[in-house]
Amino acid sequence: MHGFIDRIYQSGTSKHGHTIWSPDLPTQEFVDDACMVYSGHGVPAIVLAHAREDAQLTYLSMEGDGVRKWVLQRRTLHRNWNKAKKAGISALTTMLRPLQFASGGYDHRVHIWTMEENLTNASSVELAIRHTSMVHSLLAIRDTSHKLISAGADRNIHLLDLSSERIVRTIKISNFPHNVYRTESPFCTLIEVTLFLSLPWR
Fold first, then answer.
1. CB under 8 Å to 124, separation ≥6 — which residues?
2. What is the mean predicted confidence (pLDDT) over 41-65?
């Protein structure tokens, strides 16, 4: 996912909704990825990934009771990154646990984040996933246990078991993976790859 934020819109039970936030200059709000994180009370936060040195991760937390209009707060999360590599976050995914999400960076690193209950801050732990290029896509799954799939530009797809914190399987594919998608079965994952064709000129 790559694009600009135009607005954040709240829809209600009626046919009408309203804009709760819109940037002054949408072209300055470029994001590489985004995900939603929910607290135990169902209050959402929107996490945004940016390809830049400062404010690589920002999030918009909604404060309200679901009846009155939401009040939006914007905050920044600090991430320790490899300054010998390119700055920025390239991939995000919501974990299958409350208040958690994962991030993958242009610096090849993968972190799991746990937000505070009131969504005012978050702490991160670097995972034992080793890519040699940027992280293209992340996906949380649960088959027999909670796991995280990480697909990188190095064409490696790692499967990390979160309880043991170890890689249980690595697949090397011939094409570059772009995205990893969940399917109806927890034991099956769809991988979107780049297709290169060699066509003869006549």
1. 77, 79, 80, 103, 111, 112, 113, 114
2. 82
- Give yes or no for residue 2 having a pLDDT over 80: no
Alpha carbon distance 96, 193 (integer Å): 24
Cα separation, 134 vs 144, whole angstroms: 28
- The H or E element that residue 147 is part of is strand 146-152
- Please tell me the pTM assigned to this model: 0.85
What contacts 144, CB < 8 A, 6 or more positions away?
none
State both tokens at 20: 């709760």
What residues form DSSP beta bridges with 193?
Answer: 177
Residue 74 clears pLDDT 70, i.e. is over it: yes
How many H helices and E strands in the chain? 0, 18
